Amino acid sequence: MSVIELRGIKREYRMEVRQGAPSEDGEEAVVVRALRGVDFSAEAGEFVSVMGPSGSGKSTLMNILGCLDKPTAGTYTLDNIETSRSNSDTFAYIRNRKIGFVFQSFNLLARTTALENVELPLFYRRREKNETRHTTQSRKDRAMRALREVGLEQRVDHFPSQLSGGQQQRVAIARAMVNDPAFILADEPTGNLDTGMTLEIMGLFQELNRQGKTIIMVTHEPEVAAYTKRIITLRDGELVSDVQVTDRRNALNDLANWKKDHSLLAENT
């Protein structure tokens, strides 16, 4: 079953020409075609990386997938909800209930503990009809389960400044999962991490995917994309390739080898 289905997605921006600046054929605005009719779908349980050079349309596609922006044309169906014509309230519901966001910069609240950061989506959770509101204790229990899944049950009372970059990203992943979204949307999730922490986070994503989580990850690093199951590539606003990863790497095995190599290097210095 398709969790995500995009058909003919276009996104155009009209850039106003500055007064006195030359324009082609007397036009008063320039149209930038960021996406030029993208077709893309993802089934439940897939792990897809989105790649492409700067200006390819990756960020625009991510914004549309995350219901942060609407396409100029085309349709986007997410978990059986047609989003393209949704109003702002529906968009807010979708972002809260259907999508778990993971960002490069973690986006954790500095003066809030790991547990409280993970609780936030539950606090702002938009209830469906006849759904019971979560109590304070039930929110804490769900947040604890999410932190346990990412291996941080011993860090629940720590503030972001007391956590390593990898641990902060684990908190962010727990926060993304706490509402049991239709899919996790990760934007360069290892961009601020060193090699060891990158392998830890990719190992966590692979484990979550093995448990059935659907993950869409934007990255510019081929070595990170090699840990996913499928790679789509954008160029000039068009989807130019969509391939299955045939020789998929295991992040935890690579992490063990990396630690071994660094241990031997330390012994020889």
What would the keywords be for this entry?
single chain; 269 residues; alpha/beta; Rossmann fold; 6-stranded mixed β-sheet; 4-stranded antiparallel β-sheet; 8 helices
Quick structural summary:
With 269 residues, the protein is of the alpha/beta class.
Question: How is the secondary structure organized here?
Answer:
Blueprint: E1 2-16, E2 29-43, E3 47-51, H1 58-65, E4 73-78, E5 81-82, H2 88-97, E6 99-103, H3 114-123, H4 136-149, H5 165-177, E7 183-187, H6 195-210, E8 215-218, H7 222-225, E9 230-235, E10 238-244, H8 251-267
Parallel strand pairs: 3-8, 3-9, 6-7, 7-8
Antiparallel strand pairs: 1-2, 1-4, 4-5, 9-10
Helix pairs in contact: 3-4, 3-5, 4-5, 5-6, 6-8
Helix/strand structural class: alpha/beta
What is the total number of structural domains? 1
Order of helices and strands: EEEHEEHEHHHEHEHEEH
The overall average pLDDT, rounded, is 91
Strand order of the largest sheet: 6-7-8-3-9-10
Main beta sheet: 6 strands, mixed
Choose one word for the global shape. globular
End-to-end span in angstroms? Answer: 54 Å
CATH architecture: 3-Layer(aba) Sandwich
- Give the CATH H-level superfamily: P-loop containing nucleotide triphosphate hydrolases
Outline the low-pLDDT stretches.
none
Counted by DSSP, the helix tally is 8
What's the count of strands?
Answer: 10
Strand content: 25-35%
What percent of the residues sit in helical stretches (DSSP H or I)?
25-40%
Radius of gyration: 20 Å
* CATH C-level category: Alpha Beta
CATH topology: Rossmann fold
